[in-house]
Write a structure and sequence with these properties.
The protein is an alpha/beta fold. The protein contains 18 helices and 15 strands. It has a seven-stranded mixed β-sheet with strand order 1-4-5-15-10-11-14, sandwiched between helices. A four-stranded parallel β-sheet has the order 8-7-6-9, sandwiched between helices. β6, α6 and β7 form a beta-alpha-beta unit. The structure holds pyridoxal-5'-phosphate.
């Protein structure tokens, strides 16, 4: 098919929204290592996980055999309100860069949460409701997940308690108000409302908080209140599963026009958007049908893949959560306060960690001033004001396109544009004022953090 027939935006129709999620683990020869019980160090069973997560989500978490899992009709209906999301051909960016590369991005920012997080939030809220629970608790960092979950909970009339990393709570008051508008109760973390919060405050007075710490508080509240469960917006297998809707739509859209990406790029915080975007393509690679160059992009200030250790670690600072085998910087790692770009979790999805370890994908780290330069360039050329997180992927997509300009190769580049950056204007302001700096942790700092890794193997 000639290039001219590819539109700027490839939209699918409603009937083409996937009716099943795809579970990459079914096609992996080396399965991700199981979650371990922090007390016994034995693999977490269904019964172990039930007090923390909804039953159906525990099943999904532990399922490594079923490749396809039906999306319940209620969730499909909700998806129809804001999906399918567009796959966009970045003609304007290509022209500006004068690259022979073809650049596509899948834009997930067209909903009030401003990110892909709603894809999993609605699924998790649905299963909580179906189980007859009163409500759910969670943490939020930049605020997109808390917003998405608030939206999902109000839709299903569930109570929603959000522990928001203190620094974001203070820097993003309007995020908080969006969540409250949807009926959520928002508490800055660490807080005095939990045992673990009080302990952390004692140990680190004046701390800005971290995701790991907010997770500990949310889990404590869920497990100590009847009718509540904890939900998590990234990292877990179940979240990658729900996010496969991104990749499945992308693949359907590309197949329609006979497009095959050479390079697939996503930013990586806990790995959910990247895992979701690559899933059907990775499935082909795992089955030996096709080859793709997958690139995870992470901040140089929180470099789990590129400088972390592949080891069992706690998912939270309070060390109450199960242990996951993943690329990690240590659960006590706190990114520098001048890091503005999100993606600040110390670990990484165990599924993606295994794939990375086995050489199925690669990872690069980028510095935040370069990320914001790409963000600004993208906003000016493609019109969309990107989230700082998403801009990590933009940075590397542009870099790859510029490499093609040098070599004359006409590669097809696909990246995930996970969201919009309207609530990140403090970070943009810093960049625009020339006050943004880069921070790269030293080896000594990382070693100090690795020292707290639990001894498991
Ligand atoms: C949460 C978030 C991310 C990072 O999370 P992953 O689980 O790694 O996808 C990236 N972009 C946006 C806009 C987000 O809200």
């Amino acid at each position: 098919m000639s290039e001219k027939t590819i539109p700027y935006k490839i939209y699918l129709n409603e009937q083409e929204i996937p009716k099943q999620w795809y579970n990459m683990r079914a096609d992996m020869k080396n399965k991700p290592a199981p979650l371990l019980n922090p007390g016994t160090l034995q693999p977490m069973t269904f019964e172990d996980l039930r007090p923390v997560f909804c039953d159906e989500l525990v099943k999904q978490e532990l399922d490594e055999t079923n490749a396809f899992i039906d999306i319940p009709e209620e969730i499909q209906d909700f998806y129809k309100m804001y999906r399918p999301s567009p796959l966009i051909r970045a003609y304007c960016l290509e022209k500006k860069l004068q690259t022979p590369a073809h650049i596509y991005y899948k834009f997930e920012g067209n909903n009030t949460s401003g990110s892909h997080k709603l894809n999993s939030a609605i699924a998790q809220a649905y299963y909580a409701k179906k189980q007859g629970l009163k409500g759910v608790t969670t943490e939020t960092g930049a605020g997109q997940w808390g917003t998405a979950l608030s939206m999902a909970c109000s839709y299903f009339d569930l109570d929603c308690k959000v522990y928001m990393v203190k620094v974001s709570y203070e820097q993003k008051p309007f995020r908080r108000e969006v969540m409250r508008t949807y009926g959520a109760e928002v508490t800055p973390s660490p807080s005095e409302t939990t045992n673990v919060g009080r302990k952390i405050l004692e140990k680190y007075p004046g701390t800005n908080g971290s995701l790991g710490c907010a997770i500990s508080e949310a889990v404590e509240v869920a497990t100590s209140h009847e009718g509540y469960r904890y939900v998590l917006g990234s990292v877990l297998n179940q979240v990658l599963l729900h996010q496969s809707v991104i990749g499945l739509e992308t693949k359907t859209a590309m197949d329609k026009y006979g497009i095959t990406p050479d390079i697939i790029i996503g930013c990586a915080g806990g790995g959910s958007n990247l895992g979701g975007l690559i899933s059907p393509f990775m499935g082909e690679k795992l089955r030996g049908e096709k080859n793709y160059d997958f690139i995870a992009v992470e901040p140089a200030s929180c470099p789990s893949f590129t400088r972390g250790k592949f080891a069992y670690d706690f998912c939270d600072t309070g060390m109450v959560c199960p242990l996951a085998k993943m690329y990690t910087l240590g659960s006590g790692f706190m990114p520098s306060p001048n890091h503005a770009g999100g993606l600040r979790f110390h670990g990484m999805s165990s599924t993606l960690s295994q794939l990375y370890h086995d050489g199925y994908m690669r990872a690069v780290s980028v510095e935040q001033t370069d990320v914001f330069e790409a963000a600004q360039q993208f906003a000016r050329i493609e019109g969309i004001l990107p989230a700082p997180e998403s801009s990590h992927a933009i940075r590397v997509a542009i870099d790859e396109a510029l490499k093609c300009k040098e070599t004359g190769e006409q590669k097809t580049i696909l990246f995930g544009l996970t969201g919009t950056g309207y609530f990140d204007m403090y970070a943009y302001q810093k960049y625009n004022d020339g006050l943004m700096t880069d921070y790269i942790p030293s080896d000594e700092e990382l070693e100090k953090s690795f020292a707290s890794l639990p001894k498991v193997d």
